[in-house]
């Protein structure tokens, strides 16, 4: 059955924001939630990762704010949903797995700290808002991109647990990794994401904070769904 969800706050389609640090489980929760509600999905991290990859491919200096803002402005990126899986195309070429490489992750953190890059990508992110609704996953979805979102979640987990999750994910793909290196990377990225001037990672004042340390993903999803159904009224089918 296709349910229609209406926003109380205004005429715009409803938005659920899920912010938090890397490895907190927000990507998984956002995907499951969007599928459960039949909402569109914005993986804003993929946008910053693609901008970083474009900069790396062109040999752009990652400290040059003007050059990076230009890369972001001209970014030819497309998100295609294929059999429920998000595919990312940069200049028509598939980069879905390239943007997940560790060197791109670190570059994305640097690129995302540039105010001109964030400004260039702001409207693109807002354009994802559509009926019947949007689940937006990132760092500043509830604070900057969709401050009027109906439901705001801030999902966290301890750094060690996040490193373990990332290690399991990479080992599952046959990539050999050191847990210590991953933990260091995660801490370095947290520091960059939380301490930058432009839209730092922080919970919105009206966000509900959930800690997923030691909690299985289905339990987190149930908690989020309860919040969603509390705040967004299912409409007539
Ligand atoms: O969620 P992720 O790990 O794919 O994000 C990649 C990088 O982009 C991460 O270092 C933080 C940054 N990012 C951001 O600054 N703002 C967002 N809304 C999403 C991601």
How would you briefly describe this protein structure?
The chain has 237 residues and is an alpha/beta fold. Helices cover 46% and strands 18% of the residues. It has one domain (15-220): Rossmann fold.
What secondary-structure arrangement, pairings included, does this model have?
Blueprint: E1 5-6, E2 15-19, H1 26-37, E3 40-43, H2 44-57, H3 65-73, E4 77-82, E5 85-90, E6 93-94, H4 102-111, H5 115-126, E7 134-138, H6 141-145, E8 151-156, H7 159-172, H8 179-195, E9 208-211, H9 217-231, E10 233-234
Parallel strand pairs: 2-7, 2-8, 3-7, 8-9
Antiparallel strand pairs: 1-10, 4-5, 5-6
Helix pairs in contact: 1-9, 2-4, 3-5, 4-8, 7-8
The chain binds 2'-deoxycytidine-5'-monophosphate.
2'-deoxycytidine-5'-monophosphate binds next to helix 2, helix 4 and helix 8.
